[in-house]
Amino acid sequence: MVRLFLACFVYIIFHCNTRAQNLVINSSFEEFVDFSIVDISKWHRVQESDTPDYFNFSAVNPHNNIYNKYMGNIAPKSGDGFVGIFCYRASKFRNIKNVREFIEAPLKGTLEKDSLYRIQLSLRLDTESTIAIKNFGIYFSNSSYGITQAIKPLDIDPQVEFNSQIIENTDHWVTFHSLFKAKGGESNIVLGNFKSDRKTSKRRINIPKERRKRYKWDLVEDERASYYYIDDIIVEKIHIRFKASPDLDQVIFDTLLIIDEIEVDSAIVLENIQFEFNSSELLQQSYIDLKRLKEFLDNNPLLRIKLEGHTDNVGGYDFNLKLSRERVEAVVAYLIEKGIESSRLEYAGYSYLKPLATNETKEGRQVNRRVTFKIISK
Length: 378
Fold this sequence. Notes:
By secondary structure, the chain is an alpha+beta fold. It has 2 domains: 2-17 and 240-377, CATH 3.30.1330.60; 44-238, Jelly Rolls. Helices cover 13% and strands 27% of the residues. It has a 5-stranded mixed beta sheet with strand order 1-14-17-15-16. Strands 2-5-11-8-9 form a 5-stranded antiparallel beta sheet, with no helix packed on it. β15, α3 (317-337) and β16 (345-349) form a beta-alpha-beta unit. The longest helix has 21 residues, at 317-337.
């Protein structure tokens, strides 16, 4: 664990993080989605070849039969409904490659220029998948694609991509978070893997076959397939207000981060990033580290990082999970406001699950209240 120590400097900011309207329609898929038709006012498929699936957990729902037939004991992230798509499928025997499925929906309103939006969704890998990937993307467009336009999704560069980890969880849902700074006018959201087979980061999964069991995807021996369930999608505007601050341009840093000396996935503690008690409002001593991190990213323009928030164990798990997310989100929001592209940043909060020291002492709890970052790619 690397620790970054920097001198303190007075710089005050006020972070206002209020909940706003979720702009995603039918965000947890409680309403039935008929992917066999294309209604651009609802969730729909993008390509003619797409065959996304709708599942519903409720015993009284008329679409529960497909859930019982295919899903076993997999439950939604919340509510009763969720959907599934292929994010990777290739087979030499079947002579197929770059097979992808995408789903799209209109937002409840267009995104506002230079505004920050919190992006969140939950993913779960199907148990019959033979490949797990880490390139799930979100693309915001200014108009609906439907299936009427000739598009090549693999040529699209999504504004948000979750690739900090191989998404190989088959026994639980994993929730991903990001922030997005809108260019203005974005009115639709498209989900899927926008990378080609060659560019997709992936890992082979060996699944033992059971005799006499009927497998829903009927994959052939050499087929590589990755099928993900999607639930609880959030796109909501957040508000960040900055107070007047002194000019930091002339601050000289005596500690350098050398990119070649930092290994991918090694955690670096931003030692001086501190917050008000039980709050995501950054304290004045935080901003030298933030300025330093911003310059580090400016000097390494290909770098992508994941920031992680941690707390001590004072208070319940759910409270600390929310607090850790909001605190690291404040750091991400600062970097984006200062010009760092949101596509280079991911973040997550872990509550008190990853302590570095004992929570039995004041000193230990202070160590555990921290923000770290790790390099995803360079």
